[in-house]
Amino acid sequence: MGQLSCAQIEKPDTNLYRLTLDFNKQENKNSFDRSNSFSQKYEIGKYLKVGKNPKLDEMWAEKLNSFKVYDEPTRTSSNYRNSLSKPDNIKQFFQDCPLITQDYEYYMFRFFIQEKQGFKYYGLIGLPQKYRWGYWKVITLQKGIMHKKMDKQISEATYCIKKDINRTLINDVFKEEAVIDKLDYVLNNLANLYPKVGYCQGMNYIAALFLMVSGVQEKETVCVFAELLDSSFYMFNLLFQDDLPLLFIMEEIIMKLIQVRLPKVYDHFIQCNISPSIWISKILLSGFVYLFDLLDCVLFWDYIFIKGSVLGYTDLIISMVTIHQDALLTKDEADLSSFFNFQEQKVRCAEDIIKQALLKPIEEKEIRKIMRKTDKKLDLVELFKFFGKEGFEKLYQKFSNGITK
């Protein structure tokens, strides 16, 4: 089979238009950066070659600069939000929240607190690589997480973690023993913080990707991943819990959406006895890392952090199938696993998939409707009948009781 090419995506009719990245333009590597020499050498952290767009840099710089003005008019009625603009409180903020380490991250946090929807809107337009990790930290921020004890290197899952870490060679940087130790640190600390979840295969790929984006900041990586395990917006505790209940719910949601939106593809899958576990589970449990180019995975995770796990994953997978529907109709079960291995084929298509997702995103009511009609006896059906509605959070706490830390 030849290489895949992603279809052209129409410009969205909405006001949100994602800026196109130029993959030939990257951070300047000609000037030596002593403080980030390791990241520069391995092209991780701010040196990841995700792509650039000067308009993105200008847009974000202008927006963040607007939060440097301490005598600006009051934006909200919240005393806490307004206090963030007072110089006397800035030093205290950094002491209380050591996860925020850079001035621009502080301005980004103020942006998020004061204009949450605007913050997400900007993220969907695109993120400069130099701001990406700060954005991920802010959008998942738990102020107390950095104060938790994170010096344990041994957990009940240590044996499984060690075995999987040796297979997590997603980038040359993971040939470095010191980086392997940091990945081990991340996974064991997560297993200790969330003993009811522990460790599940696939978490190693996601943690490794986060380490790359962070510039191998292991404590910060634990904090960002912890919010995925601790939040009803991401629900990774239910994804990686024993029996993987969220995985099976999402497989049901995705297949039903394919049936409605892409009936020919759905019928073809049924006729060829193509199980969703062949391809959907690999995407969900590895955070796209198992099948996609790593730099594409970074862009996918921008989207997931903004939209949440259920809508984020679902939007991206449905968009991927939409783009490749004609080719999929020619594939049988044996061909499908290799068809979606974009990493092996060296195909970059995240930008096209995200633009397609923005054209027609999945709505919460579609998921509720699927859950009301399903005849599958799945653990989380009752929970997802309330997805996006009042009562969901309370039910989520019931279903995740004993799973979160």
CATH superfamily placement of the largest domain: Ypt/Rab-GAP domain of gyp1p, domain 3
What's the main sheet like?
A: none
> For the CA atoms, what is the radius of gyration?
21 Å
Q: At the third CATH level, what is the topology name of the largest domain?
A: Cyclin A, domain 1
Give the strand content: under 5%
By secondary-structure content and strand pairing, the structural class works out as mainly alpha
First-to-last CA distance: 47 Å
Note the run of SSEs as H and E. Answer: HHHHHHHHHHHHHHHHHHHHHHHH
Number of strands: 0
The coarse silhouette is: globular
Overall number of domains: 3
Helix content: 55-70%
Pfam families: RabGAP-TBC
Protein name: Rab-GAP TBC domain-containing protein
Domain Rab-GAP TBC: 126-308
GO molecular function: GTPase activator activity
Summarize the structure.
The protein has 405 residues and is mainly alpha-helical.
Keywords, please?
405 residues, mainly alpha, Cyclin A, domain 1, 3 domains, globular, disordered N terminus
Task: Give the SSE map.
Blueprint: H1 37-42, H2 54-65, H3 79-83, H4 87-96, H5 103-114, H6 116-125, H7 129-139, H8 158-165, H9 177-193, H10 203-214, H11 218-230, H12 236-240, H13 245-261, H14 263-271, H15 280-286, H16 294-307, H17 309-323, H18 325-328, H19 333-339, H20 342-345, H21 350-359, H22 364-373, H23 381-384, H24 392-399
InterPro entries: Rab-GAP-TBC_dom (IPR000195), Rab-GAP_TBC_sf (IPR035969), Rab_GAP_TBC_domain (IPR050302)
GO molecular function: GTPase activator activity
Pfam family, one: RabGAP-TBC
